[in-house]
Design a protein that fits this description.
The protein has 142 residues and is mostly helical. The chain has one domain. It is 58% helix and 12% strand. The chain is built from 6 helices and 5 strands, in the order H-H-H-E-E-H-H-H-E-E-E. The strands form 2 sheets. The protein has a 3-stranded antiparallel β-sheet with strand order 2-1-3. Strands 4-5 form a two-stranded antiparallel sheet. Helix 4 crosses helix 6 (95-116). The model is unreliable at 136-142 (pLDDT under 50).
Amino acid sequence: MSRDSRSTVELQIAMALALTKQWQRRNYGGMRPGVGRKMDVVMGLAQQLTGRLLFAVELYREGEPVPDGKVEQRIAEVLTSFPEGDAHVMAGRDRAVAHAARERLIAQIVEQVMTSYDVRVKVSTGLPAIAPSGKHMTSFRV
């Protein structure tokens, strides 16, 4: 568990949360603490976070790769246990307060991932490098 792997996990989770749709954040946050929090959105959020995370890292437990579904479940547990008040604030309009709540959620998810799994940063994302070719760069070679 290196600093590089922790910062990579943190970056990927932060990016995934930043890219969530407004309706997802509002459904997760609810109308007010204790009222209207829609838990059915949790698995969708967990899948999005897991997908983004596994784009950049590989997760292992006892030397074996961890199935995506197990990672989703672990992240869903963190999302479910996150305080309702903080989830509501995170979906609110006050960006400064929402940012602080989002940072707390990110920290909890990162901690759960880092303590549960052996995290290995991928050397490559698996996408082919694109290099320009030709005079006007009208075609690309892979």
